[in-house]
User: What shape does this take?
Amino acid sequence: MAIITLPYRYLERLAGTDRQTIIDRVPMIGADIERIEEDHVDVEFFPNRPDLYSPEGVARAMRGFLGIEEGLPNYTVRPSGITFSVDPNLADIRPFLGSAVIRNVALDEEGIESLMALQEALHWAVGRGRGKVAIGVHDLDTVKPPFRYVASPRNRSFVPLDFEREMTMEEMLADHPKGRDYAHLVENFDKFPLIVDAENRVLSFPPIINGELTRVTAATKNILLDCTGTDRKAVMTAVNIICTALAEAGATIETVTVEGEEMPTLAPAERVVSVGECSRLLGLPLTAEEMSRLLRRMRFDAEPDGASRVRILVPCYRSDILHDWDIFEDVAIAYGIENFDAALPATSTVAQEHPISAITGAVRSVMTGLGYLEAIPFTLSNDRVLYANMQREPAPGTLRLLHPISEEQTVVRTDLLPLLMEMLQANKHRELPQRLFAVGDVVVDCITSQKAAAVSIHPAADFSEAYAAADVLCRELSLPYTVTESADPAFLDGRRGDIVVNGKIVGVFGEVHPAVLGAFDLEHSVAAFALDLTAVPGYPALPDTPSPGGR
Amino acid sequence: MHPYQRIIDEMRRILFDMGFEEMSGGIVQSSFWNFDALFQPQDHPAREMQDTFFLGERRPLPAGYERVRDMHEHGGGTSSTGWGGTWSAEKAEQCVLRTHTTSLSIQHLAAHPKPPVRAFCIGRVYRREAIDPTHLAEFEQLEGIVMDEDVNLRHLLGFLKEFYAKMGFEKVRFRPGYFPYTEPSVEPEVYVDGLGWVELGGSGIFRQEVTEPFGIEHPVLAWGLGISRVAMLRLGLRDLRQLYRSDVEWVRDTPTYGGRR
Assistant: This one.
C-alpha cells in the first residue's frame, strides 16, 4: 500500500487551494483518506498511479481537477554536460541505468522526508521491491563527474549510509540492515553493481545502499539521481516521476548523457483516441470539445482532431496509460463518477441455477428437515485432523500448500467428516444431542467436487441412526444404492457400512470408532455418514477448458 | 440452516431475480486463469508467494495461449502497449488456490463469447493471510458479470445500485477505484446506520487486454464483494471465524427470518 503523507501548509501552497477542499475532493480522483491529523493528512493512492506518491504530484493533479491550472505541465530540461558510462559486464546483472541532475533544490527536513517517502513508494510500486528498479539520490557537489556504473569485485569497500566505518560489499549484505533486506537481489552474482565518480569514490551499491559520502541533507543544493534496474521502461518511469515532482517543487532539471543517450527528455507521448468509443464505454454523449476539456483537467494536452477524434499528449509521469480505455477512465473521473446517472439495460436474460447448487441445496433441505444444523467449515486443514485423528491413510491426490501460513492449515480438505468431528470438539461444552451436517467443496488431484457429511453426538448415537439418516438423504437425492460391510478404520468394526452405487463406494456410515472419538476428545458416541455427491444423478460432467480465440 | 448460508442464498435469489445465471468451478486454478488471462503482470506483487497459496502442481496452457502472451508482451492487436518484457509460460502453468472468482468469470466468458451474458458466482477464495478476527485465509466472494452490446459505465452503476438496494443498502455512492483487470474501475460505498459510508466491494469494466484474446467483442461489466463482510454487518459479528468454526448455540439461536432490512 502506498500511503502518502501530505503536510497541509506545503500542499496548500503547491495546490493553490485550502486543505478542506483537497480532503473533500481527493477521493474523487481515486484515493482513500487514511488519517486526518492536525498538520497533515495521510492518503492511500492506487498502485497504478505512482505519480501521485508525493505532495508535489498530488498538488499537480488537484490543480487540474479543481480547474486551477489545466493542460500539460511544462518541464524544460537543459544539458548538464555530465556523462555516465555503463559497464557491459552488467548486462546479466542489472543492465539499465537512468539518470538526471536536479539543481537548486531547497530541501528542509520535511522535504527530505517527503523525497525519501517518494523513493520508498516507488521502490514498492514500480521497483517491485527494488528488483526491477532501485533509486539513489546523491549530493552532486560531494563528487566529481564523469560517473561510471560498473560491475565491481565483491570485496570492494566503502562507508555505507548510516555507518561510520568502511565495509566490503559482501559484509554489507550480512551486516547492514538494508544489505540483509535486499541481499537476495545480488548475492548470486560474481560481481556487484557499483556507481563511482571520476576519482573512483563510491556513490552507491545499487540496489542495496548508497555511500555515506553523497548523503542528501538540508544543505544539499544539487542532486544526482540514479535509477538502476532490470526493466528499461520502469527505470525511466522512476526517473520521470522523481524529476517532475522536484521540478514542481521549484528545482530545475538537467540531462545526463548515459552511454551516448541524453536523458531524461520528460517529453509527453502522443495518442489519438476515438470520441465515439469513449462515449459508448461511459454512456455519455460527448463531443470532441467536451472530451478535450475534461482531459485537460486531468493534465493532458487535448485538442479535437476533427469531430470524431481527440489528439492527446500524455505527461511523461503517467506510466499507467497503456490503452485508450485508460484515457477514457480519466474522462469519467474528470466528469465526476458521482455525476453519472445509473441505468439498467433493456436486455432480458433468463436466470439459471447451477446444477451443483441444485444438488447441494437439496442436501441442505433434507438435512435441516432431519433436524441437523449446518456447519460451514474451512476448506484448509491438516493431516492430523483429516487423517491421523480419523485413523485413515492420507488420501492419494491430497493437495499440499507449498508455503502454508500455519500448521493448522497445510492441506486442502478431501473429506468433510473430520471437520465436523473437529466442530463437535469445539462445541463439547454445549448441550447434547448435537446433530451437524456440512456440504461443500473437496479437492482431490486438483479436481474440485462436492461431498456431504453429517454427525450426531449423544449417549445413544449408534449404527442404526447413521444408517437411517444416510438412507433418507440417498433416497431424497434419487440415488439408487446398496450397502456392503465397510473397512473404514474411522468407524467401529461391525457397525459400519459402505454406500455403493454402480459398484463404486461413494459413501460410508456407521458408529465412529472410540479411538477417533478419543482423538477429538469426545466423550459420547457419534453416528456419522459421508457421501460423495458426484454420484448423484444429474451431477454435471467436468466442462472442457475454454481457450483463447477458440471460436 | 446456517445463518451465513441464508445470507448467501438471499444473494443468490436476488441475482436470479435480476436474470443472472449461476457459475461454479474449481478451487485449484493455473496461474494462467487466475492471473495471466486477467492481464495481471507476471511480476505483480499478488503473484508472490507471500500473498498467494502456490501448489507444486502444474497445468498445461490452453490452446491459443499465445494471444494472452502477446497481449502481455506488446498489447496484441489493441491500442495497448502491454506490460513489455518476456512472458513466461512456465510461470503461467503453476497452480494456485484461486485468489478470486474472476478466474471463473473469464473462463465462463471464454466459453460464451457471444452476448448477452449475465452470470454470477459465489465461491471460496484464498489469500495467504494470518488468521485473526478480521482476516481469514479463505472466505466467500460474490462476483457478477454482464456482457452485452452497448453496455456501459452507467449500466455498471445501475446493476450495483439495484443489487445493493435489494440487499437492504438503500444509499449507495461511487468513487474511482483501481483493479488490475478493469478500466474504468469504481469503488461502491453503502451507508450503514451507526457506521456511516462503508466501502463494499469493487467493480469495473474488464480491460480490453482481458477480453480481446478470448474474442469477446462487447464490454464486460464486473463487480465483486467479500460477502463475509456483509455477513459481519448483518449478523453483528466481531470475529469472522465464527462463520466457519461456529458455536452451535449461535447457529441455533440466530433467527431464520431477520425481517426486511
Q: What stands out?
A: The CA atoms of residues 2 and 44 of chain A lie 6 Å apart.
